[in-house]
Write a structure and sequence with these properties.
The chain is α/β, with parallel strands linked by helices. Helix content is 50%, strand content 9%. It starts with 11 loop residues before the first helix and ends in a 6-residue tail after the last helix.
């Protein structure tokens, strides 16, 4: 809590930054910080269960579905952050319980396997056969004892034909079966359509949606969480008055858009010396101004 305003609760990080220079605080606000909320905590808890699941012939998987800019990637990266790779003193290899990869732009097994090998610190020739790369992936993932593979932006699969989509999805199923690992895929609603190209794949990836936020008590609690990480010298009280309605309208119910708006507004509040987020600061901050002035018809 701040000494000047005992009712305001700030995170330990935000409290330490209050005495920092304006430039340091602006830079710190620009860094992405995970804000926990009910749905994110539910999904992270389910993913923890996957990590602890015993090896079986049919490992559980899941498909996280949300609109763009509504928090799915942040949840995956938070899970990855919770389970980083660890060097093992008694072995020559690291322990990598969780691996994250973004789907390639189209169902290309070569690009996917290259990216997967790259995420594991392995370089490979672009001319090397796909089956050889797949064997390398299997060997390394076994060696580092990976338990959960995170595959982001699965909707990119729709850039190819149905046949190629099915081939790529079957490769994911093969990885899960052969290694007895769980796969957490994430994407937009298009990802659901991609999974539907194969009934077996669809049954293996139950959908876990992240819905758009609704204006109400949950949204106001989210605003309290956001304010707690912003090192502003004055309280903004984001969850009261007209600010919740203002921020909901600007963000259109998307947590990613809300985060960008609040970071931009907080930085603008420091630069202008206001030191708190108000309706006027929101209207004047660069992120909101740029959105309002952009007109695609003029391009």
């Amino acid at each position: 809590m701040t000494a000047s305003n005992p009712s305001r609760r700030l995170s330990e990080r935000a409290l330490k930054l209050l005495d920092a220079s304006d430039d340091e605080r602006i830079a710190a606000i620009g860094q992405q910080i995970f804000i926990p909320y009910t749905r994110a905590n539910e999904l992270l808890e389910e993913m923890e269960g996957l990590l602890l699941h015993p090896k079986t012939n049919r490992m559980p998987n899941m498909l996280i579905v949300a609109r763009s800019n509504n928090g799915k990637t942040e949840i995956l990266r938070q899970f990855l952050k919770r389970h980083p790779a660890e060097e093992r003193a008694d072995f020559d290899t690291a322990h990598v319980p969780v691996v994250y990869i973004q789907s390639p732009p189209g169902p290309s097994e070569h690009i996917f396997l290259n990216m997967l090998l790259g995420s594991l610190g392995m370089m490979t020739s672009t001319n090397e056969a796909a089956d050889r790369k797949l064997l390398q992936v299997l060997e390394i993932l076994r060696m580092v004892e990976t338990k959960v593979l995170l595959v982001d932006e699965v909707n990119a699969l729709l850039a190819g034909s149905v046949a190629k989509q099915r081939f790529f999805l079957n490769m994911l199923k093969y990885l899960s079966n052969e290694l007895k690992i769980s796969i957490v895929a994430a994407g937009t609603l298009d990802a659901v359509h991609a999974m539907k190209t194969d009934l077996q794949i669809e049954s293996r990836f139950p959908v876990r949606p992240i819905n758009l936020w609704q204006e109400g008590e949950d949204f106001r609690r989210l605003l309290v969480s956001f304010e707690s990480v912003l090192p502003l010298k004055k309280p903004s009280v984001l969850h009261k008055g007209m600010l919740p309605k203002k921020l909901y309208g600007v963000s259109e119910g998307m947590i990613g858009e809300l985060a960008k708006t609040l970071r931009s507004a907080a930085q603008h509040a420091i630069k202008t010396g206001v030191e708190q987020i108000t309706e006027e600061v929101i209207d004047e901050c660069p992120h909101v101004v740029n959105r309002q002035t952009f007109n695609p018809e003029k391009l």
